[in-house]
Amino acid sequence: MNKRKYKKKCNALFKKAKKLNVRLEFNPEEFDCHRLDCIWYSGTIAMIKVSDTFAIQLRAEGDVRACLTDQNGDVIASVKDKNNCGAFADEMRAYFKTDKQLYATMDNEKLTLGDNNWIEYDGIVKEDASDERGTFIDLGMICDNFLDNNVLFAVEQVLDSIEKIKAEIIDIADVEYGIKVGDV
Hints:
Layout: H1 3-19, E1 23-25, E2 43-51, E3 54-61, E4 64-69, E5 75-81, H2 87-92, H3 99-107, E6 111-115, E7 118-125, E8 135-137, E9 146-147, H4 151-160, H5 162-177
Antiparallel strand pairs: 1-2, 2-3, 3-7, 4-5, 4-6, 7-8, 7-9
Helix pairs in contact: 1-4
């Protein structure tokens, strides 16, 4: 995605969030418009604040193992990142300028992935606004909370499904954690 399209898409996401009466906390400058696959990133991608006591967090998760070989099958670079610290980006950024190059190399079997990142959403709820941290509501073992691998598409997915996701988090906060979420 070129810079102009990236900026336009980011602006559209912020407008969509505002229209939904939620606050999108997402810093477009933290992402490379040519590298939007979640394999390049780790940790929090975005936060969607529904209220002072309720938020939806999008995170890049997973263990990345990758091996890049040349035409002779010799290893050029390899990565093992089990700590979500962005080691794939640190090691492989020099070899791939875009996601398109990354995917082409994977298709040609010159880059093999043993594991991979994904983007998922979870909830953060507070019993009241004075609670500084809130409770992390991990949805991973309870429902399908995986999103598109593209950072922008993942944010859009959550915004497009915000009512369903809010209901999931509210239900799980109540049933699994005993937390009653107020009006959101």
